[in-house]
Automatic annotation (TrEMBL):
Reaction catalyzed: Mg(2+)(in) = Mg(2+)(out)
Role, per record: Mediates influx of magnesium ions. Alternates between open and closed states. Activated by low cytoplasmic Mg(2+) levels. Inactive when cytoplasmic Mg(2+) levels are high.
Protein name: Divalent cation transporter
Keywords in alphabetical order: Cell membrane, Ion transport, Magnesium, Membrane, Transmembrane, Transmembrane helix, Transport
UniProt-listed InterPro entries: CorA_cytoplasmic_dom, CorA_TM1_TM2, MgTranspt_CorA/ZnTranspt_ZntB
One Gene Ontology molecular-function label: magnesium ion binding
Family of this protein: Belongs to the CorA metal ion transporter (MIT) (TC 1.A.35) family.
Amino acid sequence: MTENDFLDNTSIISYSAKNYEKTTYNAISEIVFSENSASTKWLNTYGIQFHDAYKKVIHQNKLDDFLIKLLGDEEHPNKVILLDNLLFVTTRVLITQSQKLDSEQMIFVVSSDFLWSIQEKSGDYFGWIRERLEGNKGIVRKKKTDYLLYLILESIIDNYQNTYEVNADLSADKLNSTHIKPTPEFTSLVEKRKQELFNFKKATLSLRDTIIKLEKVEIKDFNIKYFNELKEQTNNLVSNIDFELQELESKINLIFSIQGHRLNEVMKTLTILSVIFIPLTFLAGIYGMNFENIPELKYKYGYFILLGVMALVTIVSVWYFKRKKWF
């Protein structure tokens, strides 16, 4: 990856209560975080593979050298590492734009006066934050990087929540209790929804773990009070997901119950028919034997008597089953 590739995927927003400036650069040497301490900088990079460029930015801004190793690893579990007046934060974020849920690594390098967000893939959910900064809406330009990080994480959680609610509404229509059928198609829809919920829950728990770690850090001019609200939002989302998972599990159990009930009905019908026809088969078998000295074979009305006995056996059997309410 060339330096130009890095610069094409990188931009900086500098802001304060009175000023706003969005900048793109022609050289890495122009990227300076501490040029104006009164201004807060948000550097955003799409792509985690620009290792040489990261190294140059770290050296020229005299950041903690350990960042070079941390940014050299493209796969991280959730981490919140306190460095020299810096926070290194990583989390895996769910991408929800397509029907097939995917994920990406997201990295934040945070100090009291700058935030560097590094995203594995292009595109994000932070456009509304940029609009607020540019239009000076709300209090964001009066705050520092702690509040900016809070807004970014809140945007991720809100995206999870909105996507979950949309999918929950679609799922409620397709998996309505009145439409429950013990068919492979319906069972497949339930299992597909369960897999989506497991992905959402895993991503939400991952984000909550990062937020809990952020609540425990101590860094100069970095206020952790904002993150308690984010933890509550993730807890609420996890609770909603767990509730729907329980509903889906109930539907699966109901499907098995319906299948079992239908099987029992079939077996009961077959059993009743068997019980009716066993004595008839027995009688037919007796008089179908090839012995000459069967007395009834010589009766003039023997055939009709046997049919009458068979009809009587059938009527008595059906009457008995109905009395027992077996059908």
